[in-house]
Amino acid sequence: MGLFTVENPLVLTFGLLGNIISLMVYLAPVPTFYRIYKKKTTEGFQSLPYVVALFSSMLWIYYAFLKSDATFLITINSVGCVIETIYLAMYMAYAARKARVQTAKFLLLLNVGAFCLILLLTLLLVRGPNRVVVLGWVCVGFSVCVFAAPLGIMRKVIKTKSVQFMPFYLSLFLTLSAVAWFSYGLLLKDMYIALPNILGFIFGMGQMILYVIYKGAKPQKIVENEANSVVEVTSVDTNATLIDVIKLKEILSDRQIIIVGHNNIEDVQEQLAKEKNIGGAILYQHQNVVEV
To answer: What are the CA-CA distances from residue 171 to residues 136, 141, 186 (Å)?
Structure first.
């Protein structure tokens, strides 16, 4: 295949760079899953990002096979599928029953249902070169949604004045990955690869700028009553973002806040449901809020 010849040294260079940097991004959650393995609990972490990442890899592999000259997309996304599958298997092994059921629903809906529907529609209803065009726009649309996800994190950084939930190196690698894949798509004259990475670069740079602005800022304090795990609150508005105990006191009316330590918040929720004596309480755990 001409892709690997010296006639295309820049394609080869950016393809390899894209693979190396994307691999680092895929491996970024390893410390999180090592902690899950050690503690035998998911600690309230969500599985949806890993389900979405697996679906994205599956889509790009399908596109690359149809495109036939985007070999580097196949290599990195194949590795991505393996890594994300391992993450999800570990999550299913250590999550509470409710989280496992929810994850299974996500997988069936997105990775089985949606992917099979896209596969059938593009194979049965679209012919010839148009198949690549249709699938390319599907990949672009989904990638735009994925790249827009950091907006929530950026909003949280601005609101809390804390970069705790936005690691700098992850933002850096995501930005470098966007640059590498944009260049790869541009050199291949493939706008479906290049276009979404423009947005990825913009959001990546935005995250790093926010990190520089707020890394030295004093974050909002989260005050917890460790001695008394049940706090009575008396406020009115329930339609607001829940951030910490202070904010909970401002926005909830006549509720109990039960502060959960390092336990799995879903396990505590299940236990309280069995006891049937804490109805209407709010479980609070470092950026996790669940109504019982």
So the answer is: 26, 21, 22
Residues 167/197, Cβ–Cβ less than 8 Å: no
Q: For the segment 83-122, what is each residue's pLDDT rounded down to a tens digit?
A: 999 999 999 999 888 889 999 999 999 999 999 999 999 8
Rounded Cα distance between 192 and 17, Å, is 19
Strands 253-259 and 282-285, sheet pairing: parallel
Q: Are strands 230-234 and 253-259 parallel, antiparallel or unpaired?
A: antiparallel
Residue 225's CB: how many other CB atoms inside 10 A?
11
| Cβ atoms within 10 Å, residue 253 | 10
In degrees, to the nearest 5, what angle opens at C-alpha 60 toward C-alphas 59 and 64?
Answer: 125
């493939």: which residue's tokens? 190
Q: pLDDT tens for residues 11-26?
A: 888 889 999 999 998 9
Distance CA(49)–CA(9), nearest Å, equals 34
- Token pair listed for 189: 């004259």
3-state secondary structure of 143: helix
Taking the CA atoms of 96, 37, 51 and 173 in sequence, report the sign of the dihedral they define.
positive
Q: What is the arrangement of strands in the sheet containing 230-234, beginning at the earlier edge strand?
A: 230-234, 253-259, 282-285, 288-291
Long-range (24+ apart) CB contacts under 8 A made by 3-9 are 3/69, 3/71, 3/72, 4/71, 8/187
Pair 57, 84: CB distance under 8 Å = yes
Residue 192 near residue 139, CB atoms below 8 Å: yes
How many angstroms separate the CA atoms of 224 and 255, rounded? 16
CA distance 94 to 124: 40
